[in-house]
Structures are given as C-alpha cells and as structure tokens.
Amino acid sequence: MGLLSSVFSATVSGVDGLRVIVETDVSGGLPCLEIVGMPAASVKEAKHRVRSAIRNSGFSIPSRRITVNLAPAGLHKAGTQLDLAMAVSLLVASRQLPHTTICNYGFLGELALDGTIRPVPGVLAMVLALYESGHEGAVIPVDNQGEVAFLKGFDIRVASNLAQVAAFVKGQASLPAAVAPSAKRNATSGSVVYEQIRGQRAAKRALEIAAAGEHSILLVGPPGAGKSLLAKALPEIMLDLSHEESVTVTKIHSVAGLLPKGSGLLTRRPFRSPHHTVTPAAMVGGGAIPKPGEITLAHRGVLFLDELPEFSVQVINALRQPLEDGVVNITRKGGTYRFPCRVLLVAAMNLCPCGHWGSDWQFCQCTPHQRRQYVSKVNGPLLDRIDIFMPVRRVEIEELAREPNGESAQLVKQRVEQARNLQRKRLEGTGLVSNAEMGPKQLSTLLSISASGRRLLLDAYNRMGLSTRAYYRIMKVAATIADLDGSSRIEEVHVAEALSYRQRVLE
C-alpha cells in the first residue's frame, strides 16, 4: 500500500483565487515523479525545482513512484506558487514530516534549487481563497507579506526557505507572522501638482465634476494646450480608495505581478496610460491563460487614452462593452474568466492629423477630408459612452504670467468628498458607489428633478437629436453638479451646465 498525504494550496483564475488540494502518493514502481490534474508547463517543471530543493534542504527523495495530483483535476493550474505545497506534501507522504501540524494550513511559494522560497504573484487572491474556505492560516514567502498583513483572524506565517517550513511543520520552531510595511505604497503614476495648472478654469471644473461622479471625459484641443497635464492631475482630486476597493485593486495588481517588493494595500487610485499601439488583448485582457489588461489594471482609477484617434479601431471597439458593464468576460476552453474594470475614462485628442485645427496660433494644413476621416475613428457608439466633452485651449503666456496659482487640490478634493457622501446615501443598498454607475431604474427612482429642469432636458433631447444613452448620461452629470452644489434635487441650472458638456467639440 502506498503512502498518501494531502496539503492545501491555491491558484489564480482571472483575478480570483481558488483552493487547490495537493495529493501525493508514494508507491512501488520505477522511480519517477509525475504531476497530474491539468498542470501548465510552469507547474510540470516544478518537479525539477522540488527535487533539488528537497535534497538541498537536508531531506531525501524516495526511490519510488511518486504521483502528485492537483485537485480539483478539472481546474487548469498555472504558475509556480504550488512548489512549496508539493514539496511539503511529498515530505509528509514519505514520512519525513508529520501531518498533524499542517492539516489546516495552506502553502504558497516558488522554490529555488537551494530551497529558498521566492515570492509569487497573486498571493492576496490566493490567501483570500484559503481564508474564505475556512482554513486556519497560510505559509507564504516573506517578500509577499505586506499585501496580506491586514487580514485579521487568519494566521499568516512567512518563511524564507524550505528548511524553516520543515521545522515549523515538525513543531521545532515557529515562523514569524506577516507584518505590514511601514510605508504605504500606491499605484498612482504620472501625478502632478494640481494647483500648478494655471488657466484652464473650465477644464478644471469639468475634472472636478468627473472626479465627483466618476464620469468619463474627452479633452479636445491642439498640441500644447495641456490635455495630458490635466488628465494626469485628476487622481489628485479623487478620493482615496475605500478598504474594499483597496483589497480589490491590490489583488489585481498582485495577480499582474505589478506590486513593488514589500508593498502593502494600495490606497491611491491607479492611473494607467497605455500607448496607442496597444493590442486589444493588452487593453482588455487575454492570452491562452487570460491575464488582466490595461482597463482592469485601471479598475477604480483612471484609464487615460492620449491621442484617441491613433488607437486601432479594434481596440476602440473592444472598449465599448467593458466601459458600459464594468467587467470583462473572457471565455477560453478551460472556462470563463471575469475581470472587473470599473474605470474613469479620460481621453484626449486633436481635431486633425497635424493637431492644429481650431488653433488660434498655428495654421492647420490638413484637408477637410483628412479632418473628417481622422475624427470619424472615434465617432458613434464610443462617444455615446462619454459623459463630458471639454474643449481645451492653449493658455497664452500673458495669462500664465498674471494668474496666481489656483485653489489647492485638497480644497477641490473636499468638495468631491462632500458630493460623494451624498451619492453614498442616495445609492445605499444598491451596490453602486457613484452617479456614473446608475442605470435608468436608479435615475427614475432615486433622482429628483425640478419641472423647469426636466423641460430643458426634454427640449434638448429633441433639439439635439440625442440618443437615449446620451439623455441618461446628461441626467447623471446634472445629478453630480447638483451634489457639488449641495442641492437635494436637480435644478435647471444644473441641467444647463450638464448640457454645455455635450457641445459638438468634434466639428
């Protein structure tokens, strides 16, 4: 009869963790080590790492047939995080380690040939899977401890090598508990000092509304007008992530392998600015084993698309549904992968290939046909998903010289917070967090609009030939403007300002 053991670990599917049971059987037969249970190449290669790590940690490999089964067998497993669990399971099955101490612990980590435990991506997602499955604790690489140290009621231990884990399993030594990093890291990049942006009062007002209601915005203007600068300043006036949002955002960046070494929970909103040469798969996620794309990496933050017409039609079309639904579903032979992507879209563009159409300081050399062809790339359904259209003009040097620094980002952020507090009360119990997420049902039942405001909105709907989607987006922007004013209902003035952001800036 063979010798058996079961040790718990986890893997990642999409951005979520799934528990894995590592079963090891040591039986008679020709010496070999086989791994079954739909392992990817990275998992199959673990047998070489596990053999060497065990030998170099002072243990031996039985000269017998060893079968490692990764259950559930129908779940595709990839990555190197199962190395440690397989090594521990083999040592338990060969009676070199006892089973009692570790029966309710999960083991995660990649093994080096000398037994060192290396960090792996997605630890937060996998530890959460073990926690939600009712396990007592987990042993993880020491370099991954920061992202999971916040978890209470779950015994998380860190180890640097296999020998330390073996001593822990034997009860000969304890492993240190996970400790949160002393300094908080964030995922925000490209940030600038908001108050240093001079002029652009209308554009900064539009950014404030966008931040307060998480509304998508399109900045249109010639080169040098400050479109990119405005977009990069937006995270400074957005609220920090809530705890729940922090966990989700950190989990996404952990799965993608983008967390800096020793990083804890991310508290600042992500800012992603992919180049216009990005592929559809890189934008929305994909691959044989799907990974999060740029839109998912920007979840609960800003996705900035500079030079929007330069993006391929395939990329623009791929963005439509995720922007509407807030989620990307990717189907593969092995199953369906779900990636959250609730983002604040900021796009910027010129009005012609040379960029100078509409400029008052440089002559445009493009033909009317070239201009129409350039702009037409972003016309249609994508524009229907834009809440705010904002022309951005070049600020004259005289204006820069005489205008003092504007109001601080902190002051604007306070107004944004007040508006968001009103939205939280309004949306309590709906699962929504901002005005931009409201659907027709919430708009009709949760919002109050004055008679004059409704008349103005209906008149604009007929006069401007708006789509139903555009109609609802104007209502949501008007609601956010009312929230910034502290008004309990949408007034005519709020509707009027919201309508001003639907002007035909692309003509």
If you had to describe this structure to a student in words, what would you say it looks like?
- The protein is α/β, with parallel strands linked by helices and 507 residues long.
- The chain folds into 2 domains: 3-170, Ribosomal Protein S5, domain 2, CATH 3.30.230; 194-430, P-loop containing nucleotide triphosphate hydrolases (Rossmann fold), CATH 3.40.50.300.
- It is built from 19 helices and 16 strands.
- The protein has helices at 41-44, 46-55, 83-93, 123-132, 162-170, 201-213, 227-233, 243-255, 280-284, 294-297, 313-325, 368-376, 381-384, 397-402, 409-426, 440-446, 451-464, 468-485, 492-500, and strands at residues 3-13, 16-27, 32-36, 65-71, 105-107, 110-111, 117-118, 137-141, 155-159, 217-220, 271-272, 302-305, 327-332, 335-340, 344-349, 388-391.
- The strands form 5 sheets. It has a 5-stranded parallel sheet. It has a 4-stranded mixed sheet with strand order 1-2-4-3.
- The longest helix is centred in the C-terminal third of the chain and has 18 residues, at 409-426.
- It starts with a strand and ends in a 7-residue tail after the last helix.
- Mean pLDDT is 90; it is low at 184-190.
CATH class of the largest domain: Alpha Beta
Percentage of helical residues? 25-40%
Q: Give the mean pLDDT.
A: 90
Terminal-residue CA separation = 80 Å
CATH homologous superfamily classification of the largest domain: P-loop containing nucleotide triphosphate hydrolases
Unreliable segments (pLDDT under 50, ≥5 consecutive)?
A: 184-190
CATH topology of the largest domain: Rossmann fold
Strand order of the largest sheet: 11-12-15-10-16
Q: What spatial form do the alpha-carbon principal axes imply?
A: elongated
Compute the CA-based radius of gyration.
27 Å
